[in-house]
Structure formats: C-alpha cells, structure tokens
Amino acid sequence: MSRTKTGTPSLLRRTVAGLSAVGIALIGLVAMPSMAAAAPNAAIVVGAVAIAPVDAQATVGDRLTVSGSWDASAADPHAGDTFTIGLPPELAFPQAVPFPLLGSDDEGNSVVWGNCLTDPATSIATCELTDAVEATPELVQGAWQFEVKAANATTAEGVEFDLNGATVIVDLPGTGGIDDGIELPGEVSKSGVMNQDNWSMTWTVDIPGANMVGQNTVTLHDTLGAGHELCTPTGLKVETVRGSTVVNVTGLATTVPAAGATEFDVVLTAPTSGFDANVTYRATYQTCTPDGQIDPAGTTYENAAQVEGWGSAGAGVGEVRNLPWQQNLTKSGSVLGGADRNGKVAWTVTIPGDQLLGKDGFTMTEALGVGHQLCTDTISGLQVTERYGPSNRLQQNITSRLTATTVFSTAQGFQVRFDIDDEDLEFRASDYRYVITYTTCVTSTDLPAGGTGYTNRVDIDGQVAGTTASVPARSQGKSGQINTSAVTLDGVQHMPQTTLNWAVRIPGQMIEDIDGPLTLTDTFSASQMICEAGDPSGGTAARMNLKVEARDQIQNGGLSTVDLAADTEATVDGNVITFDIDPTDLPIPTGTSDGFSREYQYVITYTTCTASGGMDARGTEYSNTLTGSGINFTTTSTQSNSGSGTGQGVTRGSVSIDKILADTPGAEFVPDDAAFTVHVREIDPAGTTQNEYDLRVPLTGAPVSGLNARGTGWTVQLTEPTFPSIPGVTFGTPVFAPGAGLTVSQDGTVATASITPGTNVSVALTNEARLGSISLVKALGGPAAGLVDADRTYRVTAQIDTSALGAGFPSQPARTVDVVAGEPVVLADLPIGATVRFSEARPANDDRFTWGEPVFAPGSVTVTAAHAVTPATVTLTNTVSRTVGTFSIVKTVTGAQADNPAVPDAVTVTASWDQEGTPGSKTLTVPTDGTPVPLGEDLLIGTEVTLTETPLSDGSSIAWGAPTWSGTGVSVDGLSAVVAVGRTADATVTLENHAATSTAGISLLKGIAGEASTEVQPSTEFPVTATWVDEDGDEQSRDLTINALEPTPLGIDLPAGTVVTITEGARPDFDTVVWGSITISGSGVADAGDGSATVTVSDQQGAEALVTVVNEATWAPGSFSITKSIAGIAEGDAEVPESVTVTASWIDGDGERSEEIQVPTDGSPAVFPRELPHGTEVTLVETPSEASARFTWADPAWSGDRVTAAEDTTAVVTIGAADTAEVALVNTAVASLGELTITKSVTGEGASRSASTVFPVTVSWTDLLGESQTRDLDLTPGEPAVIDDLPLGTEVQVEEHAAALPDQIRWSGADWSSDADNVSVSTDAGSVRAVVTVTGEPGTTAELSLVNELTVAPALAVTGADAAAAWTLAGIASVAALLGAALITVRRPRRS
C-alpha cells in the first residue's frame, strides 16, 4: 500500500512480477541501454509498490523484494523513453542487475517492451522502452520486480520512493520500521581477559542504557578479589556501544578511582539530553598484580560490580585465570619467502628460566636433518633474548653479555657454549624465558616443492627439543564469479550479471616435466557460451578476454610476470574450449628455464557469457571443468540475484481476480487496504507448468490480473495458500466461485481457468474473517447443590482484553450473560489473540443457601485460531451449602438484690430443638456476670431452639422474679424462650432474672420479653388489678401500676388462704411493638393463660409472694414502596414504557413466596400491597424492558434505606417495623451508536477538474434527551469520511452545501444512496438534503454515497456585481471551512 505526496494516486492494480527470463527476449539485454539517446518520460506512471515478505519484520542486511507497476498508456510512449524507480536511503541495490520487461504480442510471440538496470551507486533503477511500445501505445503497461537490501535502520512505518518523479510513501513489511538487528543486554554484565604480559588484565562492565534512563547519576561500585589492584595508569575508559558503533564518553565519569584501589566507585553523570536507552554504556579499566609480577600458573582473579540501587539486575561478576608458564624447552621454525625464495629457514629455541636458574652458562647442541645446512653466518648470527612472560613487553637482548664459544661446527650441526660475561647478569627463574634465534640454508639450488619439510633437533644441557619446518603449499585450482558491472568484450558491451570471469592457477612444479605444448580442455555448462563477436572481431581470444601469464611462484620473490598470450592458442568446439600453451624459456634465479618452470605459477583468465544472453533466473548454475596433463579442476558459480518485469500492449489472455470478504462480524477488523496472496500456476497445452508466481490482491479496488498473456489450450490454476496476518481474526477456507471458463474443486479451494486469447477469465475469491468463541458451562457443587432451583440464573461478565493486538485495535466492551447450571452458553465473535477473563455476580446468601466464591477453570482464556472452529471451554463452579446460624446466651441479674453474694455465679439453661426431624439438646452453664456463652451448634436457619432456665430458689433476702427472655428471633413460651435461628452473626439471647428484696406479702413485678423488648423502657408502667373476696364474702379489688424496675407491693394484708386474682389491664401502645403472650408466674401462682392468674395468701407468718407478669413484645410488621425514575432520555419519550414489572420474593413459614408489582415510570411510588414480618428480606427483580432501535437499557440501579444492591442486578430490601421502606429504582437509556461512512464522488465532464474540490456537508439529528446535535465535515471525491457515534434508529439529516468549484464548473444537485440493507435514505431527486436512518446492533457500520454531476459551462464575462457576489460566496465558504475545522468530529478510515 502506498500514499502519494504529489499528484493523484495511481489506479493501477498492484501486481507481483515473477516471470522467468525468456531467452529470445533477453537478447536485447546484451548491450547496455543507451542513456545518451534515452528520453525521460515523466508521464509514465509508476505505482502499486509493495515490499515483501509483507509479514516479516525487516532487519538491516535482509534481502527484500520490491515490486510494482508501470503504465505508459497515457504517456504517448516511444522507443528510448525511460522511467525511473529511486530507492529510499534505507534500501540499496546489492548489485547492478539488468532485467527486461517481457510480454507477448497479439500473436503470442515474446516481446521485450523495455530493458531495466539497477544502479547500486545511485540507488536508481532505470527502464528504457523499446520500439515494441509504438505499435499500440495506448495499451502499454506492466509490472516490475527486483531485490534490494535493507541498508539502514529506521523506525518509520514507511519509506519514500521516487517513482519517476513522484514521491511516494511505501509501507515497510511487518509492523513497519527496519531493525538494526542489534540486541542490547537487559542486565549488567562483567567480563575480564588476561593481557598478554600475564600480570595485568582488562575488565569490562556493560550497563544497559535503557535501565539508566531517567536517572541523573549512576554509580558503579566495584570490588576486586585478592591478588590484584588498579594499575598505574588505571586505563579507565567509558564508551557507548551499539553494534559496531563505539563512542568515547569518558567525560561522563565525574568520579573516577585512583591507581592501587581495590574497592572503588565510578559515577556516571547523565548529559543534558539524559542517558541513551538505545546503547550500552561500557566501562573498561585495567588491574595488575600488586608487585607487577606474574603469579603462578592457574591463579584466578575475581571482580564484582554492582550498580547501586539496581539489585540483582545491576550485579556482574567476572573471573580471569592467568596464562600458562613456559614449562619446557621448545623449538619452532619457518621457511622464508620473499627474496629468500624458500632458501632459508628461521629457527627459534625457547628455554624456560627454571632450566638455567643458578647456572653461569649453558651448552647448545644443534643437529640438522637433510635438505638444509649451516649458513656461513649461522653461528655468528646467533641471538639470545631474555623475555619476561609470554609477551615482548619486558625483554632485552643479552647476546653481548654472554661469551659464545664454538665447541664444534659441521654442515649438519654445531655446539656452542654460552657463559655469562656480565657480573650484573644472572639467569632468572620462570616465568623468565630465554629465546635463541638463528637461520639455516636450504641445500637445493631450485625452488623446493611445496610441502618439503626440514627437521632440526636442539639439546640444551641435556634437554632436547625438535621440530620440522615445511615449505608452504603451492596454490592451485579454478575459480569463477558473475560480473556485477558492465564488461566490454571484442568491442561489445555486456550488461552486468550476463558475463562470468574464470581464473585457473597451475603451479609450475605440476607441469615442469612437459617437453611439448601444454594442452588443456575446458568443458563449460550449457548455461554458458562464448560471448558475441564484435564487428570487426579480434577472434576467439578477444571474445573471451583471454589472458595467460607466468607469475612468480614466490610473492615478492623478484621475478617479473611474463605474458604468454602470444604462445597460447584457444579454440572452441561447442561447449569445449581447448588451450594449447607452448613451453617458453623464462628467466629464473640461476639463469633461464628450459620450458615450464617450478619457479613460476601459470595463470589463465577468461570470460564467458550467459547462454541466454541476459541475466538468468536465481539459482542458475554455471560450471567449468578443466582437464589435461594430470590437471583436473572443477568449479561452479550460482546466480543469487533476481529482477524481472512484464509489459503488455494487447488485451490479455489471463485471469482477473476479484477479492471478496464475507460479511461476518470479523470483517470489521480487516482494514480496507488489506491485501491477499493468490498463487498462480500457468500450465501449457501439454500440461507442463511453465511459470509460477504470487499475485497480491487488494481487498478493495479493481480486480488484479495475471502477469502473462497466454493462448488457446493454456490453463491457469489458482490457490490461496497463505493469508495476511491481521490482528484479531483468522481466515477460513478460501472459496472460489465457479464461472464462465472457470472450474472449481469440490471444496472450492482450487480454481482452474481455461484461457481464451485476448480475454481475461473473471475469478471471484471469497475469504471469511473468523472470530473465536468460548463455551461457558455452569456447575454447582457442595452439599446443597441438589436443593437449588434448576432454573436459577447466574450473571457472568466477560472482560475482553485486546491489548496484545496492538494500540490500534478497537477495545471490546464487556459481555454479560445469564447462565443456568448444566446449560452451556457460547460467547461468540471474540477477537483472535484477545484474553478473556470472567467474573460472576455471586448469588446473595439467604436463609436457605450460602454461596462460596465462584471458581472459573481456566481463570482466563487467550482466544486462538482453533477457537474459531471449536469453542474453548470454561467451567464456572459455585459451591453451595445450607445456611446455618447460631447464637449466644447472656445472663443478667437486675433488681435491689443484684449484688447480694447469694446470687449464684451461674445458672443452668437447657437448650432443645428439632432440626428437620432430628432432635437435639444441650445443657449450658451461663455465668451471671454477663459473659456470653455460645450455643456451640450451627443449626439451619429457622430452626426453633427452646431455652429453659433451671428455676432459682428464693432465700438470703432474695425473691427471684420469673426469667425474662429477649433478643432477635426470641418468642416466649411460658417461662421458656423459643429462639428462631437466624443469620445474624453475633445474635445474642438475653436471660434476665430480677433479684428483688424479700418482702412479706404479695408484690408484683413487670417483665418485658421478646425480640422487640428493647422498644419498651423498663420504667414503663402497666396497669394490673388485684381482686379477692374478703372474710365477709364481699369482693374487693385494688388497681396497681407495675414496672420492670422494682416490685410493686399489693399494699394490704390479707388473711391466710385468701385467693387473689391478678389481671393485667390494657397494655401501653408502641407503634413498633405488637404485644404477644402474657405469662404470670411466682410461688403459689396459677396462670390462667388469659392474662390473669391467682395467688393464695400463705398461712406462714411473714411469707413473701413475688408475682412476675411477663409481656412478650414482638415487632410490628412493615412494608415497602418502589419509586421508578428514567435517565438518559427525554421525559415522555414514546418508547419509554408506562410501567415496569418488579417481582418481589421472600421466605416465610410456608416457604418461598413471590408477587409481581407494577411500578409506574413517572416517579409515582408503588406500595407493596401487604405487610410482611419485621426483618423479612425481600428480593426485588426487575423484568427488563424491551430495547429500542434507538437505545438499550443499562442495568437497573437500586438504592434506599435497608436496600442492598447485588452484582446480579437484583436488590434486597429488609422490612422494618411499622414503616414502609422506600426503594428507588433508576433505569438509564443508553443510546445505540454506530458509524457512517460517507463517500463522495463526482461525474460528468467537469469531474476531472474537481478531483480535489472540498464539498461541505452538515449532519444533524435530535438525541435521546431531545437536544439537537450537528456535525460539519468536508468531503473530497474519492476520500471516504467516517462519522463516529452516529445514533442508530434515528432520523439523521444530511445536507450538502455549495462548494468552491473551479471556473465554469457547475453542478446539478446531489444523488444520495446506499446499497446497505440497514440504511434507509429518504430524499427528493437531486435534492441536497436527505434523511438517513441506520439500524442495527450497537457498533454497526454503514455506508452512504453522495454523487454530484459536474458540467462545464461556457465562459462568461464577469460583471462587477457578479464578481462581488462570487467573492462574497468565497468568503462565506472560507468561514464555513474554518468553522468546520473547529466542529468536525469525523475521522478518515483507519489503516492497519
């Protein structure tokens, strides 16, 4: 894909040139195009440029293929016209490569439409047209292709080509940019190396610049191990390193260490621009042994570096081991070249210092092998050097400080005694070593043969060492290479890549025994030929550029090169060249040779041409075999470059491929400029595949044709083996559609076109962009799983993370689904590569069930291509158990005697229950100090536990009142309590006993029990009437008021045996309390169960009778109301329902209950029509309202006192006492939004002059809130504009305004239309206004077309008034354009 900076975009289809060279056509490439006669034709359009491979990231050094098209059909082409393709600086031609623009004429004959040549020096490919273009110039066009090298790194997505004068940006492969291929380290590293002197070492610390960015300073702390310290000087150097680019930045080191330090800091201070993330900062320095001496062999030196504050990522440890010592006597030798001509051998003897330590001298005895002897200066030339360590850093020549005495000397050996002759000289221990050098002379007067060996043996005071020095081997063989520049042979100039140079090297020692001519035959492959003869011709040797030379066998040996061309005859027979070389007497060191001589090497060089006459296809091999006189050399050269092109001047006989993308949800993620690869096989009438290549077929635009015009009997087979890499989608099996002249395989993946000359077979190829899916399965576990309603729904939210698909990939909204246990739900249309994570609105715990945390397995899914075929499976498991509860019991003692020591420390309470038919009981000891005692049993919610206190005995001045029970879920059953187990975590049952002071006679005490007892103050007075019959038989009565604070005495002494009836009067009213049972108890009290009791006056003197009247206080029932409000949409909107349905459900003694409530949407409260017990939890569920074409409803929002909103969009309201809980419910309308693409085009004779005219358009609508919205945009023909956030299901008005048209151009109205099924367009013919309605799901895309017909009016004189009006309109248009720039909210279509 390309973007042109100047001129209009090319309309040519993008093709890939892949033709093999055709021999007859390449004859035109023998001679270089004559640029002097060439005529640049700027009207030739070069475009449709692509760089392959498109999906691979380019790295510096990579070979890339650049292809494109050329079109001269509108350029009046002539022979000699040229067009050029200029590379950007980031790309380069590896070599000069010629290639033709090949095609066929109307009779099927091969034709060269032009010849092209790439120029590495200028980075320009130049193509020159031939006279073939002049037959039908209006049809001349074609394609081209060549290889380039990625030369320079860049981060840009595209690079600038110069396409015959037009600057065009071409996308780079992959995600853009060219990587330099350099991988920078991510952590600090340290390394060291022992220097050659063996007592100093160099250390290197590499610090990643990326880790240093943002820091002002970076401190490197270094700690040396034992045995070394910083040298003098330290050699500290700081450099930035990236690949081979090294820059000295030692100046950044603001704190540096001193020589001799073993622990030190190096502080690097950031430059003004900060540290560079794209380099490595390398610090090097040297350490030495403290005394400058060489430590024993194998000594290890350690070094640790740490960048402060970086932790383990900033640590580096290095270790160095020193070099081995000289342990033994050694000897080496080499045969000398140059002026010595292999006639001398240089010898070196190395003696370890330990061998001479403590001696005053030593004796050297030398024995030579055959072939060499002492020279006249061998003994006098002996040199002795003292060297410390393996390097020559510390060494001295001590020859003059020794006395050398020759013991004996022969041609084959000698013995010399060396004695110290300097009182300051003494032999030192290893690793000092003593090196003796000298030479011997070869006995042969002729040049020795390569590989000849000379042995030598030395004895130093009885220690022996020997070695062999060999003459270097003589180079021989044959080599060849393709010429990368133009070559002139016999007066004919040949293009690069069309000739090959060959070189043969024969050592003289191989042929010195030949007396007559040397005859060699060279057999070359059929891919070569002897180059074309010139006119006039210089003969075979000139056509081959043949050279035969005798060159000195020894480099710089003193012999001059001799030209043997006059003594050589070359003849050619087919693909065999015969060389006859006469023996020639040549100068040699000893005089003159007798014919061929070993003192020389014989070199033959010559050139052949490609048999095609042009550049051959990549992989073509060129081989040569040279034989004769014991010589057999073979070599091969292979063409590794390529370049090709096509041309046409007639209607083609090929295929025309139209790419179609199926309308699937995945299609929206495929960019408009996506291109697909179709593989083409061109098969001749005999059934042989003659050509194969790939065509890049764009998703939108004109169909793409095959490269070659073929005739009757030819077939073209098409497949689509690969697909473009597009984030978010995978592609299904491609399908070719059958058609005229086209047969398709059964599975639709292979199409075969039968070619008819002069026409193209139309081919439609459909691809489906597929998305992935996940199957979500709900499972229940736990002991209560079987009790859960099988139809219960659970709300799951899927979050779709597309960050791995790149910043440009559109984010995906979360998906919410309701699932039922055991019924899989499939989430479809998930982008490939997205990661999906799930969460569940965990069901709320209630009196029946307690829910565990939801568990998803797996926890997340990355959608793959395989999931486009088979959904991934995710299992959601909820563990559910029956809800249980418990409570604690607290004992309190009140009354005047509460502090009496006789009050027991604890009381005994018996608990008993029946849980779903299983009885249970427990005895609890409850302290009287208020310490809670847990029941210690987890019981199902609603289980009734009866609590009974063991009665307390009166005494010690204490008169005990009846037990009074209170707390949540407490009801009274006589003197016992019945507790309904609830879910309150800290539920407490309070047991109160009133310890009153024993008083003779009858006293009455009030007890307030039950779950609502806290609503009644202990001081509340209750009326009681006491009645009895006196001794006269008359009925007597007395009215009393009693409370729970202190007993109230009857206040009258009655005879023993008198029966007193106690009757409670009207109890006080409390809004939140409903009075329950009345229990009257005490010693001698008989409770009638109707709110009265009798007590008999004791016959004991001073006896007391405490009567406790206990009232059970229960909570008053309550109710709730729901008030509904609507947000996000105008009040009274016709599509808002008048009411919604809310289902209320709760649990009572009869099980689960539910009832529907109709809630008005106008804000009027809907009151639940019944009262419910206090504490009842009512679950509220709204039945979703139907969505409109204009909007959807967001999840309901619940709020209010005692209202808890759940994640699953339900709510729970808890019923209060004697009140109506107010529940607020809000529904928000969410506008359904999509996008509309408006494409402007112009027709008519004025269209060409208005291609860049800007046409203003206004888009307006009324939103959900009733407010007007307007968007202004400018349309340019051929450039679609996209309006984001367009309301769906809404009438949108579009209106085109007057444009600033060129002179004489007039337009006659507008034509609004759309081919989409989900778009309705209402307009009058030619009207500039239209009403457009787009329907569909949120995110829907649609297209609208706007066409203007432009005409050309006759030129008219402009009057003053007309001119003023014109300027006024122009001013208005300018202002409108400025306003449009401020208001515009549209975007252009995205590119990948």
TrEMBL record:
Residues 775-880, 887-993, 1003-1112, 1120-1228, 1236-1335 form the DUF5979 domain. This is DUF5979 domain-containing protein. The chain crosses the membrane at residues 1364-1386. One of its GO terms (biological process) is cell adhesion. The keyword Signal applies. It comes from Microbacterium hydrocarbonoxydans. Its main location: secreted. InterPro entries: Adhesion_dom_sf, DUF5979, Fibrogen-bd_dom1. It comes from the Bacteria.
